[in-house]
Write a structure and sequence with these properties.
It is a single chain. Helix content is about 35%, strand content about 20%. It is of the alpha/beta class. The strands form three sheets. Strands 1, 2, 3, 4, 5, 6, 7, 8, 9, 10, 13, 14, 15 and 16 form a 14-stranded mixed β-sheet that branches. The radius of gyration is 30 Å and the shape is globular.
Length: about 575
């Protein structure tokens, strides 16, 4: 299940909006154009604990603050859910409607069996208003089918939990995520695991046993004794007696708010032990990563998750931003981000980038898509201005060209997915990739990053002795390929079956170069001829990600041994528990 569309009326800076979204989305636009408001609107409908707040809305949640009038102004937010699995269809069977994706309209008949364009959907709504009689704000969530003027079927907390909507507000979620408050991320995990802490009476009992006034404290003890004597002038001893000062008068609910997780900091006490602090006193970036870790646990416990995240880049270096996005993709059915970071945007296809504009409260969402005559390579490079990412990371891997950059990045992600115990993506290793653009620039860049006190690695083609020495002296680890040219390295080391699969796929899609039509490969083409044609094809496509696409369809055993060794050795080298080892990188 995922959200297909959102309709909003009269909510905060949005007078009206109709927005269609896909399974992966990032919302961009000027400040105050409505990006965060859009996520808050979805949360009003889908958030399991959002309706428990009082008031559920207030004056400032109404467009231009107008909540009184005739007729009474109403906040209305509709969310359409689609792509329901069989369990969800059974659960929502009494609320299903059919939507024609060709006409973008709700079908009239109950179940258009003959219409291949119709898909089952569920529509849910939030309605908020001011009640003059109660002098208070009220709100409700309900199904839009079936519905009549005098009857609305509530969209309950249980229903919302099944949908799996999770909203991470960048700075606001962290202060309570690891507390035991109702609705906190830790509480959600306990609910999913059907675990209920049994600590309350024990903790309260221990607190009640602690006397805040130590024996022999003449000051407070004398005052309390005098108070006891004065009380008994008016009340008998059996009614009240012996006033003492306890540490706390906390209830179970009080404890839920104050019990929290502590983490060891980098600072040490005089005895050498680490000083522990509440997690919400850590840096903002650390808090956000902790929250993400909790969300990942929730995702692993649920079948379907819809993640909404507001500006994940705040106080987080670029390589973690990218890791957050890829982890959310992996652990969710749908993701909706807002962002100002080019490093976040780079992880999305252009069609999934929605540019929001707000004109007098009317919101428009336009797909970015690729600009005319601009290739994906240029699109990404324009977002990655210079070496900003590498300047903010502690470790860098220098590649001699864009093709190598794409191949190693793709291989690392794929290998992590296939065998995470042996391999890691560069984002997870904290390594930023740098495109040197030529092998002659590798050594100067290595010296530059070494001067910034960074760990520097380099991977390049086989070099002449002098060049080899210069590069080796400028980096911490050099991985020198046994062959000259990334195309030869990949094609001589990769499975022939994978080369055939990829090339035949290109032919089938009609993407085989026209100038090579006379040599179009077929199933009867020999292995040797396939490699020859593939080498010519990839050299012609150099720099546009074609070779990385080939790597992306490979299993671990299909990939060139040199590439898998580089990534495996880097993971070992970057491990905090590693021992000093000679990795044989030359």
């Amino acid at each position: 299940m995922y959200i297909r569309s959102i309709h909003i009326e009269n909510f905060r800076c949005i007078k009206s909006a109709d927005i269609n979204i896909s399974e992966q989305n990032v919302l961009v636009g000027d400040n105050n154009c409505g990006k965060s408001t859009l996520l808050d609107a979805i949360d009003l409908v889908m958030g399991p604990d959002r309706m428990s707040r009082h008031p559920v809305v207030n004056e400032y949640d109404f467009y231009c603050g107008k909540y009184i009038g005739d007729p009474s102004p109403e906040i209305k937010i509709e969310v359409t859910l689609c792509d329901l699995n069989d369990e969800e269809k059974r659960y929502f069977i009494h609320h299903l409607e059919w939507f024609d994706i060709e006409t973008n309209k709700i079908c009239d008949q109950i179940e258009p069996l003959s219409n291949g364009n119709a898909i089952p959907i569920v529509r849910v709504c939030f309605s908020g208003r001011f009640n003059p009689e109660e002098d208070d704000f009220e709100g409700e969530t309900y199904y839009l089918n079936p519905i009549s003027d005098d009857s609305r079927i509530s969209f309950t907390k249980k229903d919302k939990r099944l949908c799996g909507f999770l909203y991470l507000r960048t700075l606001r979620t962290g202060s309570r995520a690891l507390s035991l408050e109702h609705g906190s991320l830790l509480d959600i995990i306990l609910s999913l695991k059907e675990v209920r802490p049994q600590m309350w009476e024990g903790v309260i009992g221990k607190l009640n046993d602690i006397n805040a006034v130590p024996d022999g404290d003449a000051g407070l003890s004398d005052i309390l004794l005098s108070l006891n004597n004065e009380i008994h002038k008016f009340l008998p001893e059996e009614s009240v007696n012996n006033p003492v000062m306890r540490v706390s008068d906390m209830t179970r609910e009080s404890l839920r708010k104050v019990i929290t997780v502590f983490l060891e900091s980098e600072n040490k006490l005089d005895d050498g032990t680490h000083y522990s602090v509440p997690y919400y006193k850590m840096g903002t970036g650390t808090i956000n990563v902790l929250v993400l870790a909790l969300l990942s646990i929730i995702a692993s416990l649920k079948q379907n998750v819809i993640f909404a995240m507001d500006e994940p880049e705040i106080a987080i270096p670029p390589y973690i931003q990218k890791s957050i996005v890829t982890n959310v993709f992996r652990n969710s059915k749908q993701s909706i981000f807002t962002s100002h970071s080019p490093y976040v945007l780079e992880e999305f296809k252009p069609d999934n980038v929605l540019i929001l504009s707000n004109t007098s409260g009317v919101i428009r969402a336009i797909q970015a898509k690729l600009p005319p005559n601009v290739k994906m390579k240029a699109y990404r490079e324009e977002l990655r201005k210079n070496y900003f990412e590498s300047l903010l990371s502690k470790k860098v891997l220098i590649t001699e060209g864009r093709t190598e950059y794409d191949v190693y990045s793709t291989a690392a992600r794929k290998l992590e997915e296939l065998n995470p115990d042996k391999y890691s993506s560069f984002e997870r290793m904290g390594i930023s990739l740098v495109n040197a653009e030529s092998d002659s620039k590798v050594a100067p860049l290595g010296k530059y990053y070494k001067s910034l006190d960074k760990s520097v690695y380099a991977v390049c083609d086989e070099q002449e002795p002098d060049a080899h020495t210069q590069i080796k002296d400028s980096v911490d680890l050099l991985f020198e390929a046994p062959e000259h040219g990334i195309e030869d390295l990949v094609l001589n080391g990769i499975s022939t079956d994978k080369i055939k699969e990829y090339i035949l796929g290109i032919v089938e899609e009609g993407q085989w170069p026209k100038h090579m039509e006379k040599n179009t490969p077929t199933l009867d083409t020999t292995n040797e001829e396939f490699k020859k044609l593939a080498r010519e094809y990839f050299k012609q496509k150099k720099g546009n990600g074609a070779l990385a696409d080939l790597i992306s369809i490979c299993e671990e055993d299909d990939m060139p041994e040199f590439i898998t060794n580089v990534i495996s050795k880097l993971k070992t080298h970057c491990s905090p528990s590693r021992e000093e080892t000679d990795f044989g990188a030359e």
